[in-house]
Amino acid sequence: VFALIVFACLVGEGYTNSHTSQQLFCIFNHNEDACRYGIGIGVLAFLACIFFFMVDIYFPQISNTTDRKYLVLADLCFSGLWTFLWFVGFCFLTNQWAWTQADDMRIGADSARAAITFSFFSIFSWGLLIAFAYQRYKMGVEDFAHSYVDPTPEVPTPYSSYPNISHDSYQQPPFTHTAEAPEGYQPP
Length: 188
Known about the structure:
Layout: H1 2-13, E1 15-16, E2 25-26, H2 32-58, H3 65-98, H4 109-147
Antiparallel strand pairs: 1-2
């Protein structure tokens, strides 16, 4: 949700123009990279959240432990990377906002402040996702290491059709008595 807010604020009112020119410029100190960076990490974070949400839905149905481990590690690494990128984004947007001239922020100042604020909140939300992914990783490793038991082949005991009958003496199977074989032929 925070990524969507940052993206929407920068797309909606992050670009403005002066009353003398028709050319749009980024409200963050006329630095196009600041707006592009915020929009880029916002869109990618939103798409990644949708992907990892779908993975969380189908996670119980994944039976291969190696696939599960790789998905959890991907979630852990991506969350760590995006926490860092949101921190860089917050610092970058805040720095560019501090250098913005007062006459350049007639329209869009609230959206710029909202983008900075929610990029700050995103640092902590992605940090929380790191904690959840690490917890899931540790839980998966412990469950596999401690609760996995190699299945032992069990020989099923035959069912008795009558009580108190031992299974040591079996009846002769039918059709085993063969007729006399023709000359020269020996059955195997």
